[in-house]
Structure formats: structure tokens, C-alpha cells
Amino acid sequence: MASSCRNRLFSGLLFLCFGFLGFITSPAEAAIKKYQFDVQVKNVSRLCHAKPIVTINGRFPGPTIYVREGDRVLINVTNHAQYNMSIHWHGLKQYRNGWADGPAYVTQCPIQTGSSYTYDFNVTGQRGTLWWHAHILWLRATVYGAIVILPKQGTPFPFPQPYREAEIILGEWWNGNVEEFVNKANNLGLPPNSSDAHTINGKPGPLFPCYEKHTFVMEVEQGKTYLLRIINAALNDELFFGIAGHNLTVVEVDAVYTKPFTTEAILIAPGQTTNVLVQANQASGRYFIAARPFMDAPVAIDNKTATGIFQYRGIPNTVLPSLPQLPASNDTAFALSYNKKLKSLNTPNFPANVPLKVDRKLFYTIGFGKESCPTCLNGTRFVASLNNISFEMPQVGLLQAHYFNLKGVFKTDFPDRPQTPFNYTGAPLTANLGTSTGTRLSKIAFNSTVELVLQDTNLLTVESHPFHLHGYNFFVVGTGIGNFDPAKDPAKYNLVDPVERNTVGVPTGGWTAIRFRADNPGVWFMHCHLELHTGWGLKTAFVVEDGPGSDHSVLPPPKDLPPC
């Protein structure tokens, strides 16, 4: 069964797993892949500290999902932990099937202790690296894993075939109980503690204490090319990633092929994936793989570096590795330059179908504020908002409320633009401009084309924000520093080969413009993928209306949908 294929390092073993994962009628036909996910608490030790953590099947990180484009996937999740659980299959479009998307109280109520739910979905028109994670509380601190979608049988990669491949999942580690300190911080009205370490495949590496059993090592052969499937599963940190002495060739982001380009390091935000080719073409030795944060705003973060080892075959472990020269932690110029290099492949087989005509233009400001909290330490607590509205999570799944026409759960009056325009990135503003709280969504007509400009503001402070849209990919047609100018900036858009992805970073003190076609009916969450900001209310959702006929309407809910 699927358990025999967990945490495979190399694709040679990956292919051997497929016979155990599903029932394949012929190589050209789609398969059914079945997995059992048991939510279990297990004692795990890192940094000389042992603690119980929530896991899937006792693994940290969790098992990798291996599928092919066109497969049907059934993942039965049984919750044996003390927390309610839901799991999001990050980046899978779930056409008409929001019931399988996973965010708690958006497309489902959570799976309660002792209960099960089967996520049943098709992998259609997608191939590459995605990932899955818990989508309730801060449980994704330990509940996460990779999704590897291979192309259809007989379809090659649009880049040189690698010799082997490996998944690299970047994360964070806290020595304490994450849910306990988050609850304590919320009660005090303060941000919770930063993590104690970053991790590579769950392991901090040799720059931390008690590293001997907790260092990821990738053995390579001289002259071979390897495909690294890199995932940022960190809760709150954008990360630089590199390998000492080796260049990386970017070939894919968020399961969409890109025009290849070579770089010494990549920048990857929480929620994003990046596939790179790396050639083992240096002197045989041991080289550090490293990841450390990028932060160009005056915000406290965990600035520690996680390391693994890129080790040539036959080299003894006594050889000391060398560290890569990663960009400085506040290197804004590198970040902007790197993201500008990302472009869609835009070939006949992999076209960039950028919407050229826009039916609906949206402009959302990102802001922080403080609201009165008499029981909090300083009498206030932090809030975050879009268009000055801090999102309040309901107690019923938004998709259920939409599908069954339940009244009083949400309103569809989210404003298309801020009600009070101001100099968004000018001098710091301490006022919150009267931030309101509510469950307010935006209704979008089926198959309409949407342009959304996300504008950072200096309400309390400017900061970079990685935004993720569920149920869709989108094209990043423009980005800039300062205030978006609707009269001048659209003329600079890239409408030929902009990068297509599902999670995009809004630069510190700047803006990002995205376009997509609203052809997937349902209720789709959009939020900052920094868990801290999401908890403060930096989120909303789109209600995409049904189209004509049953083929363009939300599917009926499954019978085992968790009750609210």
C-alpha cells in the first residue's frame, strides 16, 4: 500500500511505488491512488528537546503523495489526535470540487477526534510539485508533506531528464507546544514567539545542537544531474535556498513549467514550490545545502540557518562541508530581481493563456492595526485586514452555506476597493482607519476575467506578504514598489509570458497585480500564507457563481462530509 512509498528520496524508487498505490488498467489510462492518513501524536526530538507533535502516520514530515496527471486520488483521513483536523491539498485546482480543498470552516467543517473523512479528487491538467498541509490552527507546523505529480505516461519533461530527484521540504521547529504558546500570545494580544530553528526535511542540521541524527544528507554521483522539488512549508518565513559551490536552474514553480534560468540561490515564500536542476559537477566533496530567512522590514523573525549536506559518493563524513553564499537577509534587490526572472514557458504544449480583457478589476489594500482588548497585556491586540476588513471565520463551512443557501453565515458585500484611499506606502500610520470585522466575501460571475491588485500599506509597518488563492492558478502580470498607479502601471504589465502560480509574494511597501479566469465554481479562500497574519484576519474568500448547466456547477457534497 501507500505506506511502502513514504519519504522516497529518488525517482527510481518512486516509479517502483506506483504498482502498490493504485489499480492501473493500462499504462495510458488513469489510475486510482489510495492513501490512508492517520492523524497521530508522536514524541519527536529536535535541538535536544523532546515533545509530542501531531503527525500523519507517525511521520515528520508526512508521507509524499505520488500521482500522475489524470489520476483519481482518494485519501482517507482518520483523526486520532486531540485537535480537530482538516488537510488542504495546496495548489490542486479541485475543479467544481471544493469539498476536497480542505480549509476548515471554508470548504468543510473539521474532522473531529475519532472521525474520518475521505478526500476524493482528480488531478486534471496539472503536473509538477505541490504539497499538502493541515489547514486549521497552527497544526501545519508539523502536519505537512509533498505532492509529486508526474506527467502522463510517455510525456517527457520540457527540460533535460534528470538522473534522480529528491523532495526538499523547508520548515520551522519550535521547542515548545505550538498551540499552547499561540493561544497564550493571542490572550495577551502579542505576536507569538519566533521558531527555534528552520528545518530541511524536518531536520535542522549541523549548526544546531544534537544534530547527529537530525541532518538531511543527499548523496550524489559525479557528473549527474538531479531534480530538486523544493517546498516552503514554513509558517512565517520567506527563505533563501542554495547549495555551496553549485548553481541551480529553475524549471518550475507551483507545478507550472518556467523558462529555465540559472541562479546561485532561490527565494521561496511560504506556500510556494520551486523545482530546480542541479549538476554534481564540482570537486567531489561535501557541500552544505542551506536555507535562511529573507526579511526586509523591521520585523522580528527567526534568522537561523538550516543546513543539510550535498555529499558526493565515496567522500567520508569527516570532510568538513562548505557553506553557500546566500544573499543577505534584507537583500531586497535580489528578491525583486529573482522574481522578475520567473516567466511562463509559453510554448504550444504549455501556453500562457493570460486574460487580455478584464471584466472585473479589484484593488485590495493590506493593512495592520490594533483594536481594543481590555484583557490583553497592553489593552490592545493586533488585527490584519484587506480593504480595512478583518475576516471573521464562521462556525459553518462557507461552501456548505453557499451550496445549501444557508442564511446569516456570510455576506457578499466585500468592497472591490478601499472605501478610504490614502497614501498607502507613505509615512507610517498608526491609525487603523476604523477596521471592521466580518465574514464578507466577494461574488464573482462564472467565467469572468478578474484582475486583482494587492497593495501593501504602511499601516503600523510595511511587510512582504505571500498570498495564496485556493482553487486557481493566476498570472502575475505586474509588480512594483510604492503605490500602484492605475494610469501608468498597467502599461508595464507582462501579458505575454508572465509567471503562472498559486501563491505570490507582495513586496514590502509595494504591489502585485494578478489575473485569472473565474471558471471554477464554489467558495475559494484567499489569504496571506504567513500563519501569524492569517490568524489576525488577513484573509477573505471568493464566491464564484455556477455556470450554465450541471457541468459548470459545484458538485454535490460527499456523504461523509464532516458535520458542523
Supply database-style keywords.
564 residues; Immunoglobulin-like; mainly beta; 5 helices; repeat; six-stranded mixed beta sheet; 33 strands
Give a brief description.
This protein is mainly beta and 564 residues long. It contains five helices and 33 strands.
Q: How are the SSEs placed, and which strands pair?
A:
Elements: H1 11-21, E1 22-23, E2 32-46, E3 49-56, E4 65-68, E5 72-79, E6 87-90, E7 116-122, E8 128-134, E9 144-150, E10 164-173, H2 178-188, E11 197-200, E12 217-220, E13 225-232, E14 238-243, E15 248-253, E16 256-263, E17 266-268, E18 273-279, E19 286-294, E20 306-312, H3 332-341, E21 360-372, E22 380-386, E23 389-391, H4 398-403, E24 436-438, E25 442-444, E26 449-456, E27 465-469, E28 474-481, E29 500-501, E30 503-506, E31 510-517, E32 522-528, H5 531-536, E33 539-544
Parallel strand pairs: 2-5, 4-9, 10-13, 12-20, 21-26, 23-24, 25-33
Antiparallel strand pairs: 1-2, 2-3, 5-7, 6-8, 8-9, 10-11, 13-18, 14-17, 14-19, 15-16, 15-18, 19-20, 21-22, 26-31, 27-30, 27-32, 28-29, 28-31, 32-33
